[in-house]
């Protein structure tokens, strides 16, 4: 007699896991959340919150963690990858000037593992706490044959809000001479790992080996979670003309996404110190600098466009919040802007 469990789907285990996920999610809840984990959909009462805005606009974003997941799965460490998932989504939301509100996740695997799922969800909850958002639900899909054993994939979904007049980037206000400000990253974040894995495979390096820095293992260096910038960025939004989240495409591809057509970014490549991991990848991976700048964040997790008159206030704000920043360039104008829209001098 054929049954669902004989096909590889254990609904009893799934239902037990959902019961254990509920209290983890409840630790992130907000007063606007009026549904429980396990409902067919999530409910968020937006009525009272909307009154704080002249013209509230909902903002949504979805993202994943890419092949960084494969490193986490290879070394069997799953407690930080959920933070990456939240960070990749909420940092994109910040680039629109929005305040994130709630989050959902999608976890797909071949065979459910209680320990792995709970570790991932705990990381997601930790990221939600950092971002001050509610984990309101998600989907756990067990698909034998679609994924190998011990392999899983993740996707995240976030919704936020911004007043229409505060939506970023504000390209019409950008001018020649505006500062380009870089906020420090916490490492590689969650982009470029296909190249990282290719380099490590070519060099025969095991992720459990020691790295050259502070007796850290490579897995600790590479799985350092993506920084979440909600606390430091939200209070300063009115002083900022544009925000670029430095994700896939690096500095070269992401900065032009927030610039008007008549301006380009003139960046001083020596204005910030590249973290050791990026110098190591450049040297040992034999990667040209332009390729590095197009693939990785190279130590800059977010880029802001700030007017000269607001620069001191912005600088004071980030110093107060313990956020390391550097002025890495200025906006410039040309009749024929360079094709890359970013020039490194």
UniProtKB/TrEMBL annotation:
<keyword id="KW-0658">Purine biosynthesis</keyword>
<keyword id="KW-0436">Ligase</keyword>
<protein>
    <recommendedName>
        <fullName>Phosphoribosylformylglycinamidine cyclo-ligase</fullName>
        <ecNumber>6.3.3.1</ecNumber>
    </recommendedName>
</protein>
<comment type="similarity">
    <text>Belongs to the AIR synthase family.</text>
</comment>
<dbReference type="GO" id="GO:0004637">
    <property type="term" value="F:phosphoribosylamine-glycine ligase activity"/>
</dbReference>
<comment type="pathway">
    <text>Purine metabolism; IMP biosynthesis via de novo pathway; 5-amino-1-(5-phospho-D-ribosyl)imidazole from N(2)-formyl-N(1)-(5-phospho-D-ribosyl)glycinamide: step 2/2.</text>
</comment>
<dbReference type="Pfam" id="PF02769">
    <property type="entry name" value="AIRS_C"/>
</dbReference>
<dbReference type="GO" id="GO:0005829">
    <property type="term" value="C:cytosol"/>
</dbReference>
<keyword id="KW-0547">Nucleotide-binding</keyword>
<dbReference type="GO" id="GO:0004641">
    <property type="term" value="F:phosphoribosylformylglycinamidine cyclo-ligase activity"/>
</dbReference>
<dbReference type="InterPro" id="IPR016188">
    <property type="entry name" value="PurM-like_N"/>
</dbReference>
<dbReference type="InterPro" id="IPR004733">
    <property type="entry name" value="PurM_cligase"/>
</dbReference>
<keyword id="KW-0963">Cytoplasm</keyword>
<dbReference type="InterPro" id="IPR036921">
    <property type="entry name" value="PurM-like_N_sf"/>
</dbReference>
<dbReference type="Pfam" id="PF00586">
    <property type="entry name" value="AIRS"/>
</dbReference>
<keyword id="KW-0067">ATP-binding</keyword>
<dbReference type="InterPro" id="IPR010918">
    <property type="entry name" value="PurM-like_C_dom"/>
</dbReference>
<dbReference type="GO" id="GO:0006189">
    <property type="term" value="P:'de novo' IMP biosynthetic process"/>
</dbReference>
<dbReference type="InterPro" id="IPR036676">
    <property type="entry name" value="PurM-like_C_sf"/>
</dbReference>
<dbReference type="GO" id="GO:0046084">
    <property type="term" value="P:adenine biosynthetic process"/>
</dbReference>
<feature type="domain" description="PurM-like C-terminal">
    <location>
        <begin position="175"/>
        <end position="333"/>
    </location>
</feature>
<feature type="domain" description="PurM-like N-terminal">
    <location>
        <begin position="55"/>
        <end position="162"/>
    </location>
</feature>
<dbReference type="GO" id="GO:0005524">
    <property type="term" value="F:ATP binding"/>
</dbReference>
